[in-house]
């Protein structure tokens, strides 16, 4: 079986905090499995070596990189989430934009009645849309 999953690489041990935010924000979101760094391994003990998790029922992967990179997340690659209810869209947009950066505020952009784009406090980019 071949599986493709989006992968988030966090730095500074932020993976668990990001996952906690996503699990409390999106429905049908949970940890599937996680392997954590142990004593003597390259990453700080207890940080995520690799994890598989779901957001809105879709599987993703992530890790806490023990290697410091000169790059982080880019908005050019984002997760698109479509909502049935405007109130839920507004709630999630508010949570994800807290401490992050609003790239496009919630508005009618012609292609959607209500759309917003935000980079959360961890640098992960989210396009949030109200289903037509």
UniProtKB/TrEMBL annotation:
Protein name in the entry: VOC family protein
Annotated InterPro entries: 3_dmu_93_MTrfase, Glyas_Bleomycin-R_OHBP_Dase, PhnB-like
Domain (PhnB-like): residue spans on this chain: 6-128
One Pfam family here: 3-dmu-9_3-mt
UniProt lineage: Bacteria, Pseudomonadati, Pseudomonadota, Betaproteobacteria, Burkholderiales
């Amino acid at each position: 079986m071949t599986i493709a999953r989006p992968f988030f690489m966090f730095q500074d041990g932020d993976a668990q905090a990001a996952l906690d935010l996503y699990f409390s924000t999106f429905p049908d979101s949970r940890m599937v499995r996680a392997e954590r760094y142990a004593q003597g391994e390259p990453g700080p003990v207890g940080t995520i070596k690799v994890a598989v998790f779901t957001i809105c029922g879709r599987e993703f992967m992530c890790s806490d990189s023990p290697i410091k990179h000169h790059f982080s997340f880019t908005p050019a690659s984002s997760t698109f989430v479509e909502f049935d209810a405007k109130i839920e869209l507004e709630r999630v947009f508010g949570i994800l934009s807290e401490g992050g950066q609003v790239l496009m505020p919630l508005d009618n952009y012609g292609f959607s009645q209500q759309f917003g784009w935000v980079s959360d406090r961890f640098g992960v980019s989210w396009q949030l849309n109200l289903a037509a």
